[in-house]
Amino acid sequence: MIKKILFHLIGLGLILGGWCLCVINVGLDRGATPFRFFSIPNIIGLSMIIIGAYFPEIATRLFGKKET
Fold first, then answer.
1. Where are the transmembrane segments (predicted)?
2. How many domains does the chain divide into?
3. Whole-angstrom Cα distance, residue 42 to residue 36?
4. Contacts of 68 (CB under 8 A, 6+ apart)
5. Is the sign of the CA dihedral 34, 36, 40, 45 positive or negative?
6. 63 Cβ partners below 8 Å, 6+ apart?
7. pLDDT band at 64 (very low <50, low <70, confident <90, very high)
């Protein structure tokens, strides 16, 4: 049970970190002349969000103890 909660907290952290990275990057690039939505930090942030969404389920299946 503790492992499952830990996996969900790690996933939440990845989602929030990726969201903050995307929001901060878009906010800082707003004043730039050639605005690019798909920059490297945005791609990293979006991939962090996707990984964070699926991390708890995959980690529970791989590292969690079988519950009967």
1. 38-56
2. 1
3. 10
4. none
5. positive
6. 3, 7
7. confident
